[in-house]
Design brief:
Radius of gyration: 16 Å
Strand order of the largest sheet: 1-2-3-4-5-7-6
Structural class: alpha+beta
CATH topology: Aminopeptidase
CATH class: Alpha Beta
Helix content: 25-40%
Number of helices: 5
CATH architecture: 3-Layer(aba) Sandwich
Largest sheet: 7 strands, mixed
Strand content: 25-35%
Order of helices and strands: EHHHEEEHEHEE
């Protein structure tokens, strides 16, 4: 029997390649059939290792879930970008590589992201999700989130509904 070591921590220089790999795999799995293929491919390719290393060096708040030296997923967070919404904090992204989904890592990463927002004195949390991303909607609803707003995203001329979930 072996023991896996899980660590949720701030991203640091040198993590860019593994975060880029987690981003690529998770986005392609999450959005295949939802976001038009060309738009999805462009979004994934533009956020390679160098992009993530620059984000880390600019002090972007990025948490990573690391299992035995492999970054299984990540979350980005900060001040809510939509000031008209009640929550002060926002989790901009939270993604896991497909092979690490469904075993509780997402919940741990989500809870640690919320703790980090509170540590930064941001009250409440908002998360946006595409309405067609049913697994993400189930995740947020199971985590106690309630729908607080709707909006749209454009991808290659296709308008997709998105929903904001909130927590106090």
């Amino acid at each position: 029997m072996s023991t896996l070591l899980l660590d949720i921590r701030r991203a640091r220089p040198g993590d860019g390649e593994q975060i880029a790999n987690a981003h690529d795999a998770s986005w392609r799995q999450a959005y295949c059939g939802i976001v038009p293929h060309r738009a999805l491919d462009r979004m994934v390719r533009r956020r390679g290792e160098e992009w993530w290393e620059r984000a880390i060096s600019r002090s972007t708040v990025i948490l990573v879930a690391e299992i035995d030296d492999t970054i299984a997923g990540y979350a980005t967070l900060g001040i809510n970008r939509i000031r008209s919404l009640a929550p002060d904090g926002e989790i901009y992204e939270i993604y896991l590589r497909p092979e690490y989904q469904g075993v509780g890592l997402g919940t741990g990463l989500f809870l640690d992201a919320r703790i980090e927002l509170k540590r930064r004195r941001l009250k409440g949390t908002a998360v946006w999700v595409l309405a067609d991303n049913e697994p993400a909607i189930r995740f947020y609803e199971n985590a106690g989130g309630r729908a607080i707003a709707e909006g749209f995203e454009q991808f290659d001329g296709e308008k997709l509904l998105k929903i904001a979930y909130g927590w106090d």
